[in-house]
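Render this sequence as a predicted structure.
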Amino acid sequence: MRRVPLAVVALTAAVLPAGCDGTPTPRPTPSAPTSAPAPPTIDYSAWQAGASKPVADKLYPKHGTAALDVLHYDLKLAWRPEDKTLTGTATLRLRPTVDASEIKLDFKPYALDEVSVNGLATEGAKVTAEKLVVPATVKTDEPVTLTVGYHGKPATTPMPSHRGDVEPLGLTVTKDGSLWTMQEPFGAFTWYPANDQPSDKALYDIAVTVPAGWSAIAAGTPAGQSGTTFRYRSTDPMASYLQTLAVGKYKKIAAEGPNGLPLTYWYRPGVDERLLPSLKKSPSFISFLEKRFGPYPFPTGGIVIVDSASGMETQQMITMGGRPAKFDPAAYEEDLLHEYAHHWFGDSVSPSTWTDLWLNEGWATYVQFLYQQSLDGFSDAELETYLRQGDARLRKRLGPPGSPQAANFAESNVYICPAAMLKELNDALGDAEFFALGKAWVQTQRNTQQDRASFIAFVNKQTGKDFTKLINTWLDARSTPK
């Protein structure tokens, strides 16, 4: 998520098996009811890269489930701006992690047009209390295919935070009928059935049909356009909060990043031109990050501008607000660098639960300060002083970063305080060993979910030193560690 707006004034110049069992099937008599046809056998190994180990999120227990592992989302959507109606068919490949008599996913109330499990129509499916509940007997580790057809008018959900740039989460409809979304820590459920929590990463195929003259942008790799249908595919697994959707009258700029990386910038003509010079600096931002942390972790990248004051590190396609409270090109570019840094720290390597949001934001914030330092030349001592002063103030007001409060999502303590911890780790190791650590972390743990314990274990193994006390103290202390 976009960096917290803390000015650095002091630092700058200013498989379900199916099929026959070999037993002949008796011919039914005219009076006997026929059985439903057996569903076709599906090779679920095609989506094995989307396998995860979901865990219940203690911070937001009403969202997501550890009972299901979504392997793949196939979303076919159509948007009608004239009556602000979204029509969708979502096909989910699911691996149950427990035996159950129902499938339950996060979903805003839409009218259900069809629901089927393994191709067989299912009666009794309903949406209640923002949950889609589908009666179906499922077995542990025996994947099933759930298909849901739906339509309705999108509605957002509140963000549990007191940040200055707080906006409703989920699919947002603008006055002219355009769409955009940001959905951290949740909100994907406002436009498709989702296991809306960070530990369940999945593959995606998305096709969005829009009116002539409009464009649709989603996270992932562009997979072609047929008429007014835009397609995107994610072959690297993605947490639901990192998906995005924007629909509007956009114009596209194609560019190239380091090593031929395809980049795409989407902007609204007559609205976003002032931002284009900053967007076009993306290759330099990526080069800065690659030098320290290795190759960009995805096959394509880009930015889409939306009608927001915030920004979000949505995977392969940053969703960036086009109406910051006060536009400062330098600050906007620092935000972009921060969001790109998340593609290593947060997108490719994701937190298992929101308790460890510091693992995303601490790294992205510290890297952002290093980028500022490379431009403005302030000293390590000045950075140390700034971080410690901010850390003391934030711990007193919001508590330690390792124990975030549900009502204070993504507030400043999970940015500045872990960044201060990483500064201490950097000082203890020196630049060469610190960046080798960061590079090894993101390159060897690609497409995984991690937590505090796994990070500490990795640091200790990688460095051959025991940093357990340092890390835990900075994450748990009520006041700034000495």
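Summary. The CA atoms of residues 15 and 43 lie 7 Å apart. The chain has a mean pLDDT of 92.
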